């Protein structure tokens, strides 16, 4: 499957960076991912509302300035400027949206999940259309009971995918955050507190997940583009085979979307599937000269989150 082919438009996603980094740094991290997935989305990478109040762990690795969304105590139970941050983001989304989804890393993922929980309870973004998706990388829940009782009161019914690293010091909090969502997709990776490089199985998981969200194009004659439907069915079948054969990336999904298989244009669809298969990346080699330094820095990022 090639990018956004067969779809009406790209889905707009607001991407929130980690503590004392920047929107441009998160954009660099996300650029590791397969273009065939990223091309489905219009991704926006704003900077945090506050300048970094201390040393950034990516100094010497990525140029300043650095930002943070809010501040917190060592136990992550008390927060400073959180309300101001939420108000800023709600205004930003209303003025620059509407947005279809949120993506966040660490502090940005924690904040994204909070916004979704608050919107579901009618606390924020009342004039903004319901957010449809979340991509959480090393996220966690807030720990203040007054926040938890509202944001995580009910399962958040938003399509969500959660990246959880085996060596991430936020692995357990990330697991807990996933339980706040209805039928989350969990993609595990062997790395630490970082935006992971994805193997072929994880890329296929993301493609299948995206296909349950992206709208099918409708021509002027009002008939749904059946090739698009068939591509989704074919992609899901390939994904199931990849999951059963792969031992590199353990992933679980309790949200499966059934798509009817059409008998039309089978040869055409198979040809597309074969062609797309040739373009799928295998295990990627680490060719980024900053990668090892970046991983080391990110693994030490946000001493508390």
UniProtKB/TrEMBL annotation:
Q: What is the lineage of its organism?
A: Eukaryota, Viridiplantae, Streptophyta, Embryophyta, Tracheophyta
What span is annotated as the signal peptide, if there is one? none
Provide the residue span(s) of the region labelled Disordered: 235-305
According to the entry, every stretch annotated as the Serine hydrolase domain falls at: 9-201
State where composition is biased (Basic and acidic residues).
Answer: 263-288
> Compositional bias (Low complexity) spans?
240-258
One Pfam assignment: FSH1
Quote the protein name from its UniProt record: Dihydrofolate reductase isoform X2
Task: Name the source organism.
Answer: Cinnamomum micranthum f. kanehirae
